[in-house]
Design a protein that fits this description.
The chain is of the alpha/beta class and 232 residues long. It has a single domain (2-69, 97-231), classed as Rossmann fold (3-Layer(aba) Sandwich). The chain contains 9 helices and 5 strands; from the N terminus they run βαβαβααβαβαααα. The chain has helices at residues 13-25, 42-53, 66-70, 101-116, 138-152, 167-176, 180-186, 203-217, 219-230, and strands at 2-8, 26-35, 58-63, 120-122, 157-159. A 5-stranded parallel beta sheet has the order 3-2-1-4-5, with helices on both faces. Helix 1 runs parallel beside helix 6. The two termini are 19 Å apart. Keywords: ATP-binding, Ligase, Metal-binding, Nucleotide-binding, Plasmid, Queuosine biosynthesis, Zinc.
């Protein structure tokens, strides 16, 4: 097993799957959860509960609500609509995009990693089932990783286990870790702040349920695809 990691943890499907994998991979796992004024603040409570259930002893909560003051997003403003899949063209930035969010999250997670002497930052960003967030792209993560390592004069590794996985393959990874039902029932991905299967209407719920259905209908094929990607 490797030494120590910090998981950027929201309590959603993706970050929980990353946390489960990290627990199996690292001797020491720290979680960091950000309060950025998200409209469904129960996300913080769910993240806390999941981390406790998984036995994570080091869990840092950081208030970055200034993001809410600087940018308008339907994730942070009650007066903006939560988008449904039919509401956006592929060329548009989604209404749920929070400018600078991952820049701030990964920077602060790196400072925390420096403090606790962790070598790796783990984030559940994904470019394959791309929701249109520019700060979830691999090029962005690689560039920021280099800049931060230079800025703190310490080699940190940004690990993105889900970067090239489809949503169906992310479900397959949770199943491979023996925690499919845990991820299905305990996490919250819904933009409207509803746990587990969510509201069933928003874009996040659509991606999640579509991926799960695809995995359950094609387990053998998707497991093989996942296995090939894990050994790239």
């Amino acid at each position: 097993m490797k030494n120590s990691s910090v998981v950027v943890f929201s309590g959603g499907q993706d970050s929980t799957t990353c946390l489960l994998q990290a627990i199996n991979k690292y001797n020491s796992v720290h979680c960091v959860t950000f309060d950025y004024g998200q409209r469904h603040s129960q996300e913080i409570d769910i993240a806390r509960d999941i981390a406790k259930k998984l036995g994570v002893k080091s869990h840092k909560f950081i208030d970055v609500s200034i993001i809410n003051e600087l940018s308008a997003s339907s994730l942070t403003r009650d007066d903006l609509l939560v988008p449904e899949p039919h509401m956006r063209k592929n060329s548009d930035l989604p209404l749920t995009f929070v400018p600078g969010r991952n820049i701030i999250f990964l920077t602060l997670a790196s400072i925390y990693a420096y403090q606790v002497q962790a070598e790796t930052i783990i984030t559940g960003v994904c470019e394959t089932d791309f929701s249109g967030y520019p700060d979830c792209r691999n090029d962005f993560v690689v560039a920021l990783n280099k800049a931060i390592s230079l800025g703190i004069d310490r080699e940190l590794v940004f690990e993105t286990p889900l970067m090239w996985l489809t949503k169906a393959e992310i479900w397959a990874l949770a199943d491979k870790l023996g925690m499919l039902n845990f991820v299905k029932n305990e996490t919250m991905t819904c933009y409207n702040g509803i746990k587990s299967f969510g509201c069933g209407k928003c874009e996040a719920c659509n991606l999640r349920s579509k991926g799960l259905k695809e995995y359950l209908n094609n387990k053998t094929v998707i497991r093989k695809k996942l296995q090939s990607k894990l050994y790239l």
